[in-house]
Amino acid sequence: MEEPTEQSNKNDTKKSVPVLPWMRSPVDVSLIDECPLGHVPFLDPRLDLALRNTGITSHFPVQVAVWQETIGPGSFERDLCVNSPTGSGKTLAYALPIVQVLSTRAVKCLRALVVLPTRDLALQVKEVFATIAPAVGLSVGLAVGQSSIADEISGLIKRPKLEAGLCYDPDNLSPELQSSVDILVATPGRLMDHINNTKGFTLEHLCYLVVDETDRLLREAYQSWLPTVLRLTCSSDESLFRHMPSTFGSLKTIRKFGVERGFKGKSFPRLVKMVLSATLTQDPSKLAQLDLHHPLFLTTGQMRYRLPEQLESYKVICGSNLKPLYLVALLQTLQGEKCIVFTSSVESTHRLCTLLNYFGDLRIKIKEYSGLQRQSLRSKTLKAFRAGKIQVLVSSDAMTRGMDVEGVRNVINYDTPAYIKTYIHRAGRTARAGQAGHCFTLLHKEEVKRFKKLLQKADNNSCHVHSVPSESIESLRPIYTTALEKLKGSVESETYRKRKINVKSSTQGKWKR
Ligand SMILES: Nc1ncnc2c1ncn2[C@@H]1O[C@H](COP(=O)(O)OP(=O)(O)OP(=O)(O)O)[C@@H](O)[C@H]1O
User: Fold this and answer.
1) Is 133:220 a contact under the CB 8 Å cutoff?
2) How far, in Å, from the CA of 50 to the mean position of ligand 1?
3) ipTM above 0.95, yes or no
4) What is the mean pLDDT of residues 408-416?
5) Could you give the angle at which helices 45-53 and 90-102 cross, rounded to 10 degrees?
6) Which residues does ligand 1 sit against, CB inside 6 Å?
7) pTM of the prediction?
8) How far apart are alpha carbons 221 and 227 in whole angstroms?
9) How confident is the model at residue 504 (pLDDT cuts 50, 70, 90)?
């Protein structure tokens, strides 16, 4: 699934001028330097230590910028919209301030919710929280449908012993139920399941909402998860004002000054929102869905889109009938370095991966990773890829946004991306965290001009030609012919099998009727 374009893309090749006034005066993250951990103001020493234990010794620029607006001096006064390149460290940018601010909490309840579009991404983000939250006594939960709903519920809700006196809010919760987690990382579908069906699951104490990969999440309604979350976290006062005539409009500003939701008789701050992406939407109607409070826009440089600094882009020009040969020759020159090959659909992902595996002994382990597969198989593949047991992943777009795999040095666009957003997210699987990386795009001659225009939208004027020696192509021809024959056979037998299954299920249907 490719990234659709937006109206404002007309402006993309020039300095971007957003429609929304608050987006026109952003904090420019490119002007901020990295900051050694020892110089990060107010950083809890326990978190400092936890970060150092994972090898982190400084804050990346986007983390410095978000820290300033959350912990100090900004104190979470404004909602944040962060547009920062792939691999720039956005996850820790929001995870660290949330964990620090919740570290002083007196009672356990669900205070922070992070929503991501896919299960693998949610698992990845949970891992980031899990490296820092336990250091200050916080627990992180996961609602993604990885385990059975019953197992997930037992991880999220606990039944404390009444004599321990832990039931703090008898008015609102059934006395024996309370949250086991302070922070929840969720996908929208499972989140909605818990909201609708899980006894004791409540968002009424929520203080922080993070919408990661915002543009992707806003594109899909997912059972109206966002309006539901906003409604459930809205103060009773505020929901009252919402339905009042405009003369009461000024009263809404109560929210700006903090105390708006009751929490066991005490005032409680408003729900703070942080929304992030490497390609954040600037579409006012989409952003309006988030009901942002006095938002602050943090972006990197003046262009709308930006590629990682250490990324080198190359084009590989080849005839369309020879693409698989060029791909194999390219993979051979990469000598088993970790690589992701992108295609434009789940079907072509499957076909290409099958074909590559018929190429005889390439001495490269190649696997498919796509939405056609079962989640358990995808997770297994991803684990093996992370561990280096697989060197090449052939993938469709839908699965790879935000994916952070250590050591991916190369990305190959087997099919040319139609949109700059797609190019950014694909290329962004390499050159992460300041590391070097290459992105190769296979193109026919006729595609070159359009591709050049596409890259200009991300201020990328240096995309050199990468040439593949014709001898390499010629030497692969015989084996390619054999591989194609095998692929044909495999496609035929798969089609036959599918047809058989369809016939079987329709016959069973008839009998049932
Ligand atoms: N301060 C830091 N020092 C060193 N490494 C870091 C730091 N912050 C983050 N990283 C590493 O940088 C990598 C990229 O981080 P992250 O996944 O948060 O990027 P991102 O901006 O969310 O990218 P994307 O837009 O693709 O989702 C991760 O491997 C992470 O561990």
Assistant:
1) no
2) 16
3) yes
4) 97
5) 140
6) 56, 58-60, 63, 84, 86-92, 278, 402, 404, 428, 432-433
7) 0.87
8) 9
9) low
